[in-house]
Amino acid sequence: MLQRLRHVVGWGLPTAPPGTRVDFQVRASIGHGQTVYLVGDIPSLGGSIEAVPTPSSCSGGSKSMNATSGNSSSSNVSLEHGVALVTTPDLYPIWYNLEPIMVPSGTRIHYRYAICTGSKFTRYETLDGISRQLQIGNEDLQTNDTLDTLQSSAQEEMDDKYGGRTSFWSVVPRLSSGQAFVDRRANGIAEKDGTMTGRNLTLSITGGIPEEEEHHETSEISSSLHLGEDECRVFCSSPAMYRSRAYSEESAKSPRNVTIDASDGVIIVVYRLPVLVIRQMDGNYLIEWEDDNLLCPPGFLKESDKSMSWDQASSMRITWVGTVHCSSVIPKEDEEKLVRLLMPFRCVPVFLSQNSAQTFHDFCYGTLWPIFHNIVDVYGKLPTRWWNPTQQKNAWAAYKNVNRIFVNKVIEVYNEGDLVWVHGFHLLVAPSFLSRRLPVVNVGLYLHTPFPSSEIFRTLSVRADLLRGMLSADHIGFHLYEHARHFLTSCRRILGVKYSAQPGGYIGIEYNGRVVMLTISHIGIETSFMDIINDTDTVKREYQRLMEKYDAGNRRIIVGIDRVERLKGIILKISSIEHFLNMYPEWQCKLQVIQVGIIDSSNPSSEKTNVREEVIKAVERTNERFKGVREDPVIVYKEVENTDLAARLPLWRLGNIFLSTSVRDAVNLYPFEFVYAHQLCEKPGVLIVSEFSGSSRVLRGSIGINPWRRDEIVNAIGTALKMTESELSARHQKDLEYIVSNSRTKWAERILVDLKRTKKLSTEGEHMGYGLGLSFRMLEFNAGFKLLDTEAVAKAYRSSYRRVLLFDYGNTLVTEERGRNDFSKYLGIESDRIPDGTIVSKAEVTPAPSEVLSALSLMCSDPRNTVFVLSGKDRSDLEKTLGSVRGLGLAAEHGYLYKWGDSRASSCSEDEWLCTKDNFDDSWKDLTHSVMDTYTQRTHGTYVELKGSALLWQYRDADPEFGHLQAKELHDQLTQVLENFQVEVLAGSDYLEVRPEGVDKGVIVDRILSTLESKMGNYVDFIMCIGDDQSDELMFQYLEEVRSRPKLFTVTVGKKPSAAKYFVNDVEQVKELLSVLTKVSTALNRNLSLNDLRLFDGPRQASHPSKLKEESEEILDSRDLSMEEPLSMETSSRLTLKNKCSMSMSAISSVANACSGTSFTYEQYFSKIEETEDDQGGIFF
What we know:
- Among the domains are: 19-52 and 78-147, Sandwich (Immunoglobulin-like), CATH 2.60.40.10; 265-275 and 313-323 and 348-520, Glycogen Phosphorylase B (Rossmann fold, 3-Layer(aba) Sandwich); 527-741, 3-Layer(aba) Sandwich (Rossmann fold), CATH 3.40.50; 782-816 and 837-903 and 999-1082, 3-Layer(aba) Sandwich (Rossmann fold), CATH 3.40.50; 922-997, Trehalose-6-phosphate phosphatase related protein, domain 2 (Alpha-Beta Plaits, 2-Layer Sandwich), CATH 3.30.70.
- A hairpin with a 2-residue loop joins β24 (506-511) and β25 (514-520).
- 41% of the residues are buried.
- The protein has 37 helices and 47 strands.
- It is of the alpha/beta class.
- The two termini are 72 Å apart.
- Mean pLDDT is 75; it is low at 1-16, 57-79, 152-237, 246-255, 297-314, 761-765, 828-833 and 1088-1181.
């Protein structure tokens, strides 16, 4: 398990053990609570096929185990009891060993499978006394077994012929795209033209993550299903998600190959530079490095830090970009001077005008900061700013403008290959502007504030723009998962994006074809820096002074440092301490409270003033109450503008208890400093922290409290005062372990490694920008993705001899717009609703424009063309809109029903609809509907829709999160109850669909091309396929992978990530393309020469256009083109074509072949064709 974990996380792997790697896989449909075990005659399998597996001794898992989680802490190889196999809900009933088994080369092993129920051995597999055998060679192996069934003799012969067993699963979740082709390959009868080539991928336990890549070609005949790179995407939610998982060991993007070293550069962009700038009376500036910065370069903390040893992250080229915080206004003429003074600190200042800075500050702290901290006062003054459109518009414009200014400064200092790391809610849209200016730059965004719940975040009028700006980054970081969860929920509800857990411990957000990495990692402190500060004379003297002043030897001291803000809960803290002293009067003289308040006088506000006055009054009230008991005040309260570590460290060492009562806090490193300060003085202290602060999630030795419950705070103080030394030491050690192992530099290095791992490929076309303003998006495409060149298509079209043109209908040939408030699906439901409540899909179909119908008719009339329109609509809808086009092939319900426009390609008549599933049993619909109806009654906004041969559970109108949750449960239940039916359960963006298995556009395209090339003997040398939605991706993938050829054009409508190689911008460009092709077809038909017709007279099995001309010339040379022998009556009867609007090449070729041995001229040939067909638009010359 450790080896697999290291591979996923990216740690370096040890040298592989000697021998051949063997992976066992078995298909076993067993009962609930049962587990499959493997025993054999080698030590790693138990030493004997008679070994009795003992579940308590064999590691592994049951059917419910998540194999990727690594729940087993021990190896899955037991030397005495065999190996426990595991499975996952997605892969069941396939079981496999969690770790590879190494076997010496040249060994022949005997093995078999066993079943255990619970913790007891049940039985061995029934093989009539015969054991399985496996000859180990020098190449890695993977078995493909079935429980209680031996491999067939035919399979064994196939193995011997092709060098042993295949290294891939023979039983995998069924692929939908190109199912007919897949079935042929799985049965070992792949055609030569359809042989799959490409890199083989061994799928890992997650069902879609390549664990290893072997760079060799597949054999022409395979006894099992081989998966190429593109086909493996079926197991992932999208091609982009697949690319994020597909890290080969040799790839530069592999986690194990990504490190941070001195050659790397990073630009850290923050609102305020981490330096303290003081303008002196003489006009000079005093600059010091601030102790509380995020990442401290060596040599710039203090003079005493030069002896420190630094990690790799701190040895990089670090450049800071941000504004300068100075207590006085910086004159315009001093800006250049300040730039030079900051250069030794690696800081690049950003100067803002006073008006821009003020408006920007008001928007950040008057709008964003309250919202991000879940503050929405609907009865106060805050909403009036929302209800003033002009004010909000100006504030938002200032926010964007300042973000642009920061981006401009970043571009000035950017060097190729630098990482850009943006921090804080002040610069949320900066990644969008930056990715537009520098498309290949790696941008990270880290948020140090909480993120609000989606219900509160949605109150922002600019909510979508903020999310798009954030998602323009390649990596997003949060300190806590609860903040990341709110962000993900907002993305899901507002933008409709999907996300999932990824190998390595991060979350992948699929956005515009890219996968944005999201990491949860809490920042730490630099303990080595605290060691140095603690040894200074200043700290030692201040500590002694405080000890004497507050009589620390005889009193217990509670300390705290907080900003004077309402969310810090200072008033709640004072009130609780007062209540504690009332309840426990014995502590009134033995307890001392020291509270430090940090104020910001540079940005005063009425709210800050009110909070400050309330805190002072509460302190005075408490001290006055206990004035008669003690002479000095119980609570000592002081206010400071700023505080550094040298001032805090003596206070931390003095205190026995650290008390924090914040009601909303993301990052507070003071508890970390308190714990380590007591490590320095070797005297453990107690942490009492609010459960709403981030430190309570990571410092598990602390006492968590709800600051709104006063009694809980009182009890926590009492527990801390009475805590035993052993418990004090144990809690302290628990927190210390985390603090030492998670320093600030290590935290930064982890994040920067993740950011560097997302490095965009430099391949042209991999990443492409699209859109204007904050709608600008950085899209990720397959290499070579580009705008369709109409002239290139026309040239290829003109020089082709057999063409297939495939079109989607909606938003490809016609524009269909369904707004978010579209109600057409409910119209007429009284008449269209089945009595059980199911809605029959009867949305009005957009009619095809006249120019589209005309273009399709002209293309269908070309004898070289086969034209199909493939749609998810019902056949009645297609016949209604396109039935008037003679010779047009139609495929309804994603190919479940179809009809040929040319009966020569089929034995059926032109108007006869065919079904891809013969004698299909649809009794599954009643069972499916009953299950769907149960979830419909429990999920508001959902309904069941009957769409042709499929049943859909629509949850587009339901709550996104609840709908997605219910859909996942419904998917699992339907998969279980329908396992014996030939149907598949598919999850869409906002629906679940149950439809016949192996039905999609990829399958019907395979059937069309296979029929044309096999039955009619014509090689299709030109294919154009145009579509716009997710269902069309299946035929794009199929054509690019299986039917690749020079004149193949897969085109998606709209510039978006796709498996297609080309794109057009909109439906209008599709219409323009049709117009160009119809002109080419008309010109070709009008000027068709005798030489062109002779090319039709080729052999039936011409396999490639490159050979077509040679073969045609040979045939023409061998034939005597004379007029001596007339056509026979039998031949003449074959030339009669009735009720046809066009004659295809195959029709002409078939007539010519029928006349073999007969000499004739083309004049005689065409004279036998009925003249009535020319009137019907048959052949145009």
